[in-house]
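the three lines:
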Amino acid sequence: MTRYPLLYLIMLIAVTSAISCTGNKASTYKKTRPLMDTIVSITVASADKDSAEKAIDSALSEIERFGNLIDFYSDKSELSEINRNAGLRPVRVSPETMDLIVNAVAAAERSGGAFDPTVGVIVRLWDFANRKMPSDDEIKLLLPLVNYRDIIVDRDNSTVFLKRKGMLMDLGGIAKGYAADLAVESFRRNGISSGLVAIAGDIRAFGLKPDGSEWNVGIKNPRQTSDKDEIMAKIRLKDRAISTAGDYERFFILSGKKYHHILDPKTGYPAYKSISVSVVADTGALTDGFDNAVFVLGPEKGLKLLKEMGLDAVITDANGATHVTDGIREKLTFEKRD
Amino acid sequence: MQLQDKQQIAILSAYALALHGAEAMLPSPIPWLRFGLANIITTASLVIFNFRTAMMITLVRVLLGSILTGTFLGPAFILSFGGGVAGTAAMGAANSLGRKVFGPVGLSLVGAIFHNSAQLFLAYILFIQRIEAVLFISPLIMLIGTLTGFANGLVSDILIRNLLQKDNDTIQNVARA
Amino acid sequence: MRNAIKSTTIADRVLLALLVISSLTGMFYSRDALSKGEDVLVEINGKLTYTLPLSQDREITVNASHGQATIEIKDGRVKMKQAECGNHICMKQGWIKSGSIVCLPNGIVITIGNGRKKDLDAVTG
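prediction for all of em together
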């Protein structure tokens, strides 16, 4: 070997670079599963496939377990137990359910009732699939049951009590964001330092991607006409969550008027001051808890609330104009419209 | 000498052409690119004769080669022509640095690298507009080019020695007679 | 052969070393730069002709400059199954999960990327 020192040198360098360069290259792994009545997609950055898979499965199990606790449509969920016992007795719940309800009530309080989980009793009257809406009288009758102040939470005994008979709590407006937070906590326990959890449109970004860049999330165009204009804007996220409330997800048009699923808890009818609101905050509980509220309040009051809470958002109002809070201005890129 | 030179040039051109054609017919079990065997001839011509000769042989090889295989003016021709000219030109430049700087091996390497680079560049602007795809395969192509260039260079060296030796033999014989 | 190796000049050897090292280094870096995504983008002569999901197994045959080529997608990977070209480098690349396969004579480039979502990791709304 040493007769040709140069050749030896070349081979030595080649071999060492081969050995040192093949390890330690983290890449991203993604898995999708239907949970919580929607598609959950989890991406993690990891040096190897097995730890990534383990972390993702762990997070998905967390989401599944939590989903079962607060499933509005399942008789076996803790939420249904609470609803069945409305006006009767307090119900003992798991810590996560308690935490979620506490968050929901806080969001209702801070937003002055623009978000109210007890609006469930009226939501049930609307059938968006079959284009059926309740009558004025039906709504008037049930409106008194919509009142977040009638949710009695006893933290010491870990119980929740709906004061009036007939009250119905629906946590769908905040559960997904909270579930995303649970997933991220699961990441932390499994030693993952970077990932993205997407439960339908409730998304939480954690850490940075392997190449050091922020996670790129697209915001849907509320008035999409074709494949080409699906995305209204892109936002770069690092350790932040985003949730969107839009009037285009579930709706029907009757006599020229659009009826969509984001109801104003005070009237029982859809809110018309905004067409799309995306809230950006540190946790999914916050973004999901406040996106509906800001939507219902509209741009003026909504921006005021956001400022008070220290949250960010992109609001598209009823005229199609966008309002952006200062905190995310730099992270947003709007798509060009021809 | 001049007549003999011209004869040698003609013969070398023929060899270059033949090598090019034979190489093209090699079956695919040998993976990846061609070995650039014709480059052996080009390198040898550059060392024994001069740049003009080497370039002429290259052009003859490329033109006749493409006409005979029916790919004249086609994409393969453009790549072959571009690569051949670039490679030979670079070799000529490297050679003009002085006889003692680069030996046949070095010249062959220079030729191979410029040949491949030119081909990748032409492929990019003419056929594959995706720069990432081109950048992706470049290192592998460069590596192969380096290894074959080295091997070809060694063969050129041997060829050159043999050819020059024969010349010497001829001179000696003439002298004795 | 020994004589030939011995008679290489210093410049020859330095050049060889440099080229080997730089091309090897290049190869390791290019592995990182591999484009990733969920779709198979097929470009023929520079024009995006097909966008296919990587998750769906299928085989398609396309027409290109030198003839036909068959692309196979299976188990989340893509390969050039058959191509009418001179050296079949494209076929030798085998299965890829990221990056590209190039068939130079045919002007076909198969890339793993994101067809419509434009490098977005998720969409909210």
